[in-house]
Amino acid sequence: MRQLTKTQSVILMLGGLLMVIGAFMALFRSPASVWVFVPGVVMFVSMQMLQRYDGQNLNIRRLRRFMLLSNVLLLLSALLMYASNGNPFQFDHITYVQYIGNNWVVTLLIAALLQLYTTFRIGKELEKES
């Protein structure tokens, strides 16, 4: 895997921290939670996209695709969190509750589980490879 520079690593960690703070703020129904969570997601996902794997190990390539799926789910969580903050897209009430509501929590949970799994598995595979 391509290693990130120190600055990129700091941005990755700061993005992760902002995501956690934003999700925690959402528990208390803070309207500012979106404005903390969304930049955190953008920083985290953009830095993860910079980490590339150019080797031939198929397991790492598969795990990397899972990580990319997780990044898409994080971005979807950010969009759903924004949409659940006061119905900015002006959906009718039934559509809003059915499709938006607090569904960002579900996509965030799936993304977090995929991130956790792929992070540990990629580390193990890289150790085996070297």
Major sheet summary line: none
Overall mean pLDDT stands at 89
Query: What structural class do you assign from the helix and strand content?
Result: mainly alpha
The termini sit apart by 12 Å
Number of strands: 0
Rg calc? 16 Å
* Residue share in helix: over 70%
Total number of helices: 5
Task: Describe the 3D structure.
About 75% of the residues lie in helices and about 0% in strands. The chain has five helices and no strands. It has helices at about 5-25, 35-50, 60-85, 95-100, 105-130.
Core attributes:
130 residues, mainly alpha, 5 helices, 0% strand, elongated
Gist?
With 130 residues, the protein is mainly alpha-helical.
Question: Can you lay out the helices and strands and say which pair or pack?
Answer:
Elements: H1 6-27, H2 33-50, H3 58-83, H4 93-100, H5 104-129
Helix pairs in contact: 1-2, 2-3, 3-5
